[in-house]
Design brief:
alpha/beta, D-Maltodextrin-Binding Protein, domain 2, 2 domains, six-stranded mixed β-sheet, 15 strands, globular
Length: 335
């Protein structure tokens, strides 16, 4: 086992919205000097004939904005390993899942649900890190309605229009959908469901009255309040269990020395240092990175099992473009 200690929160932050983090993250103290870790990683990449590291991203927000936000982190990691990093944007959640499974990207930042699905399809992929955001190893998923809506309970959503993000989104589909099942509501039979690609699009569709309700994550709620200037907002009527943050995974075929080197580079980045604050400034919520193992995502597998038992669809649906505001600003953190 390479896991040696439970994470001490990086900057003393606490989760917002009254949540308690019930998903432990694991921090690693590697006794090998970082220079040796990086040397071994670079040698493993050289042996695999990797001269440019292809780093895949999930398009949970506007692609160009997401690339811009991740660029400083990718460049820092590339400098540590001595090679360039190419950021590759998946066309959607399922596309990036496919890319890491088939090995057309070397490393990917995938949603928890996409990771669970990808690991099932290709057991050789290796999770080597996740991140801490606002002092927490997990984040919240919420079911929302317009603040002026008369709807107070999940039961009242039956027969109503409802916006989800994507069928691979953990907080924008899987966890809220199963939360509804717990209340006797089948999302596919009891709702007029729409899939709108991003969390901001869900928030805006609810605020603007284009749907009666929606599913999103805690960051989108905070950002929605900050970015909208019309004074309109939403209300939370239900919340789902806490979700572990995204998985940073290495494709099958690359040795563990590469994962160790990538992790070592990421673990240097935290808001506890001036350099870390500079690198993480575009991400707003992320405090730093920690090493996790596959079992970190068992809670996602448990929720997926509930969904599978009732036959909830998992294939990506055609996107409901009409619901997405063309000028919706992008959010700065989790899927």
């Amino acid at each position: 086992m390479r896991w040696l200690s439970i994470l001490v929160l990086l900057v003393g932050c606490v989760p917002e919205l009254g949540e308690v983090d019930d998903i432990p993250a694991i921090s690693v103290r590697n006794t090998t000097p970082p220079t040796q870790v990086f040397e071994k990683g670079r040698q493993a990449l050289d042996d695999a004939k990797v001269t440019t590291l292809r780093w895949g991203l999930t398009p949970y927000m506007a692609p160009e904005e997401l690339k811009k936000n991740y660029r400083p982190i990718a460049d820092f990691v590339g400098d540590r390993l001595g090679l360039s990093v190419e950021l590759v944007m998946g066309e959607n959640y399922a596309d990036l899942e496919q890319r890491i499974v088939e090995g057309s990207v070397d490393v990917a930042v995938v949603s928890p649900y996409s990771y669970v699905r990808a690991k099932k399809r290709e057991p050789g992929i290796l999770p080597f890190a996740s991140h801490i955001a606002r002092g927490s190893a997990s984040y919240g998923a919420y079911i929302i309605v317009n603040e002026e809506s008369d709807i107070e309970t999940l039961a009242e959503l039956k027969g109503q229009s409802f916006a989800f993000v994507d069928r691979r989104s953990t907080s924008g589909w899987l966890f809220p959908a199963v939360r509804m099942l717990d209340e006797g509501i089948h999302p596919e039979r009891d709702l007029d469901e729409r899939f709108v690609k991003t969390h901001n699009a869900v928030y805006d569709a609810v605020v603007e009255g284009r749907v009666e309700g929606g599913a999103t994550y805690d960051g989108a709620l905070r950002q929605g309040r900050d970015r909208r200037r019309d004074g309109r907002g939403v209300r939370v009527i239900a919340k789902a269990p806490r979700i572990p943050h995204e998985a940073y995974v290495l494709r099958e075929g690359l040795p563990i020395e590469v994962a160790d080197a990538l992790g070592a580079a990421l673990f240097e980045i935290s808001t506890g240092t001036r350099k870390g604050r500079e690198l993480l400034a575009p991400m707003l919520r992320i405090n730093g990175f920690v090493q996790v193992e596959d079992s970190h995502y068992d809670v996602v597998r448990e929720v997926e099992e509930k969904a599978n038992k009732v036959g909830l669809a998992v294939e990506t649906e055609p996107l409901s473009e009409a619901l997405e505001s063309p000028d919706t600003p992008s959010e700065k953190a989790n899927p």
